[in-house]
Amino acid sequence: MLARLPLALLLATLVATTAAAHEADVPSRDALVEELRSMGMVLRRARQRLDADVSLDRYDVVARLNQAQVWTATEEHPKAALRLLQLLARPGFERSLAYPDALEVLAEAEWAIGLQAAARRHLRTALTPPEQAATHWRRRFAWYLSRVTQRPDLPDLRGLWVTYQRLGPAEPPDDADRAIRYGYAKALFHAKAMGEARGLFQAVPEGDPYRLRALYFLGVIDVAEGEWVKASETFEAALAAHEAAAPRPRTDADTLDFDPADPPPRLVDLSAEAEDDEGHGPLAVDEAVDRQRRVGALIHLALGRLAAARGEWDAAWQHYRKVPRGGPEFTAALSEGSFVLARREAFEWCARLIDQLLAGRGADVSAAQLTLWKLQLTARSERYEDARTGYEAFEREVLQRLEGFDAATVGDRLFPAEVLAWTAPGEATRVRTLEAELVVQREALIEAGELLAELDTLNRSKDLLPVVVFGKETHARLTAQTDRYAAKLVRAAEAAHRDGARGAHGGGAPASAQDVGRLQESLARLRERLQVFQGRLGEYEQRYRARLREVLDAERPVIAELQQALATEEASARDLAGTLKGEAKANLARYAAEARFGQVDIAFWRKEAVSRQIRRLHEDRAREIAPLDEV
Fold it and tell me: Which helix (H) or strand (E) holds 140?
């Protein structure tokens, strides 16, 4: 058909079609304005979302802090910690009045998770801002002291103590003040600053809930300094305070259930055994044991040891028998009290007690010691045939166990049960504790490592913060759109300067050269806002990553140190296992020998009984003759 058209008409048709297509590709002024307005609205919404996430508005901060506290109360500690780290990452938040509160709640969450180094660091930081109420500062200081008393940084604690003195305690002192004074004194005690600790413990007034514990630690300090007489007086004062504070009838069910399974601890070990009274040291308190009751047990144990050291057996027994069962001091009271009974020559009483203790007990070193002791007491009670029969039966049993010892100790367990059974009680207890601690430490390190790995993965992730991810996506989309928009403005400018431009462009009125200039200025401002928005996104993300790195940097050295210590302990445990196996076998052989020697000793105890009877007859005769001599 085109072939039949004249050439001039064909050329005119082609030119008109090309011009129309070009003009249709140029957007109209209205379309350009609308697109620019749309991009501005998208950026505004993204900025509003970022503003809401980094806002320092008091109500928003309090709402997020309250949510974190709720998660902490419901034991959703990881969620609470991440929420608080986001809060702390907000630019300028360190100037907020809620800054120390957020650090305190974060420390609580981290402590619960097991990130204790980070918790201490954040709680210590919470004590730095001066813009906080004195009441809140004192409460945080008391909480901090309860977490650092075992390994105190003494110069730092002294600086905080100066701050506390400058702020001044409440009048009258409140619970936080009392906890601070006692906690600081205990920190000084553990740091071996005995003189300063003594002064603070002595300053605890009558009626203070910490008075009894302060008196106890004063007695411990006296023992540590070798002042035994003074220590007895101090412990007597502590006992009087304890009985006055919590008088209650005492029953035989609370006392006299003694088990001399462990060797008597030495008196000089008192300060080491009194590590803590709040569950942070070797004598960790069970929740079922009332703290005041436990302090009373510690006081009776200390007074019993001091009386025994002076050879006052009756007084020592009266204190040992008042140590109630259920607490960690009971084992020491059992062994030491039984020793005192023997020194008082209460042989039959002690033997009956041992019979009760042996009932239902398995075969181990403690049972062997109790059995040998019981048989000796039986002989000293002049029941010689019963003692001989008992020694023979015990020897047969021990020799039978010795014969099957090697077969019983084969297995995958590092410390087989048979080895621990025939290891010295104190050492066996320590090894069982060590074995359990190794398992706990290994599991805890695995969990801590997994948690740090998750934090590290989160820190490296591009999707760290949802608002930042959304902002970056919006920024990338708008950047690409502004580039396309700039190209449209170039075409619009060309169309505006074309002499033959006429008619509609892109469905509306064309943009004039002046319109294009104003739109280019608006586009430049939009790009500047995009650049500022990108900077804010980067700052927020960097601050949050820095907060995560703080936690990682605080915990990684600790975990590395613990891993090294664990590896060393495991190597030592393997060496110890071989040593204990040999010692356990030697103990079995020794107990068999002691049973044989016991049978020989029966003749000695028979002779001793005769000598004792002669001595008593002589004493009775002397008492009868004494009145005649006076005449």
Answer: helix 134-148
The reported pTM is 0.53
User: What are the pLDDT digits (tens) for 321-340?
Assistant: 788 766 667 767 766 776 77
- Alpha-carbon torsion angle 481, 482, 488, 489, nearest 10: 160
Q: Helical H runs in 175-227?
A: 175-190, 194-202, 211-224
Q: Which of 107, 102, 109 is nearest to 78 (CA)?
A: 109
How far, in Å, CA of 501 to CA of 23, rounded? 8
Among all chains, which residue has been given the structure tokens 């959304």? 470
Residue 326 CB-half CA count within 13 A: 16
Are 211 and 246 spatial neighbours (Cβ–Cβ below 8 Å)? no
Cα distances (angstroms) measured from residue 610 to each of 335, 344, 604: 29, 19, 10
pLDDT digits (tens, 9 = 90+) for 362-376: 788 778 887 887 888
pLDDT of residue 331: 63
Which residue matches tokens 């027994």?
317
CA 371 to chain centre: 42
Nearest-angstrom CA–CA distance, 580 and 577: 5
CA torsion 621-624-627-631 (nearest 10°) is -70
Q: Is the pLDDT of residue 17 over 70?
A: no
Query: If DSSP codes are grouped into helix, strand and coil, which group holds residue 604?
Result: helix
H helices of 461-512, in order, are: 466-497
Does the pLDDT of residue 3 top 80, yes or no? no
184-187 long-range contacts (CB < 8 A, ≥24 apart) are 184/145, 184/157, 185/214, 185/217, 186/145, 186/149, 186/217, 186/276, 187/145, 187/148, 187/149, 187/152, 187/154, 187/157
pLDDT digits (tens, 9 = 90+) for 619-630: 766 666 655 555
Angle at 351 between CA 253 and CA 332, to 5 degrees: 55
- Sign for the pseudo-dihedral over CA of 61, 64, 65, 66: positive
Buried b (16+ CB within 10 A) or exposed e, 319-351: bbbbbbbebbbbbbbbbbbbbbbbeeebbeebb
CA dihedral 588, 591, 593, 598 (to 10 degrees): -170
- Residue 436's region, left for phi above 0, alpha for psi from -120 to 50, else beta, is alpha
Candidate from 47-56, 242-251, 256-265 with smallest mean pLDDT: 256-265
Check: CB of residue 332 under 8 Å from CB of residue 265: yes
3-state secondary structure 289-357: CCHHHHHHHHHHHHHHHHHHHCCCHHHHHHHHCCCCCCCCCHHHHHHHHHHHHHHCCCHHHHHHHHHHH
